[in-house]
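C-alpha cells as discussed.
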C-alpha cells in the first residue's frame, strides 16, 4: 500500500504559532544520523499523539471500505434490530430502511400489512438464536436486481415450546449498508432454500 502524505495542524499554547506537520517532508529533511529517540524528543508530544490518532483513523476507514459487506457481526446486528422492530410493530421504520427495489415494488401500507401478518404467525417468542448467515450473489435473476444479498436465519422458540424459523433477508446498498428485503417465518428449516433464495414482503 503506497504511503500517504498527510498534513496535521496541531493546537499549541497561545504564545506559539501552530505548526504544520507533513509526514513525507519531515522524513526527507531529517539528518541521517538522527536517532529515533532524538526524533521523538523533537516532535511536540501533542503532535505525536495527533499523528498516531489520525493514522489509526485512516487505517480503520480503509479497512472498513475493504471489508464492505463481509462482516457476519454486522449482519447479525442488523437482523437483531429488524426483529426488535417487528416485535414492537415498528413497520414504518422497517419500510424507511428497506432496499430501494422493495420500496419501488410495494407500498408502505402493503409492506406493513405483510410484515405484520408474517410476524403474527410466529406468536409470542420465548427465545431466539441465529442458525445460519448466508450471502448470495444475484446476477440476471428474474424479479431480483443484481447485487449481493444475505440471509440471517433464526431458530425461534415460542412460549408454547414449539420451535420454528425466522428468515431476515438483506441487500447490500450503494451506501455500503445492508437494507431489508423481507422477512419470512417457517415451521421447518430448509437449509438449501436459505442459501439460494431471499425473503421478500
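Sequence:
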Amino acid at each position: 500500500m503506497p504511503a500517504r502524505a498527510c498534513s496535521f495542524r496541531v493546537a499549541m499554547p497561545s504564545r506559539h504559532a501552530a505548526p504544520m506537520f507533513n509526514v513525507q517532508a519531515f522524513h526527507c529533511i531529517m539528518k541521517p544520523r538522527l536517532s529515533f529517540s532524538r526524533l521523538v524528543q523533537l516532535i511536540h508530544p501533542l503532535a505525536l499523539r495527533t499523528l498516531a490518532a489520525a493514522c489509526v483513523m485512516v487505517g480503520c476507514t480503509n479497512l472498513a471500505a475493504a471489508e464492505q459487506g463481509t462482516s457476519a457481526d454486522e449482519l447479525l446486528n442488523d437482523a437483531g434490530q429488524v426483529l426488535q422492530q417487528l416485535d414492537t410493530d415498528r413497520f414504518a421504520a422497517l419500510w424507511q430502511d428497506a432496499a430501494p427495489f422493495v420500496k419501488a415494488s410495494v407500498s408502505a401500507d402493503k409492506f406493513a400489512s405483510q410484515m405484520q401478518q408474517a410476524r403474527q404467525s410466529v406468536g409470542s417468542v420465548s427465545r431466539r438464536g441465529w442458525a445460519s448467515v448466508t450471502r448470495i450473489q444475484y446476477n440476471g435473476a428474474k424479479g431480483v436486481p443484481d447485487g449481493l444479498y444475505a440471509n440471517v436465519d433464526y431458530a425461534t422458540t415460542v412460549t408454547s415450546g414449539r420451535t420454528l424459523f425466522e428468515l431476515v433477508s438483506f441487500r447490500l446498498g450503494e451506501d455500503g449498508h445492508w437494507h431489508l428485503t423481507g422477512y419470512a417465518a417457517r415451521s421447518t428449516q430448509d437449509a438449501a432454500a436459505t442459501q439460494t433464495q431471499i425473503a421478500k414482503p
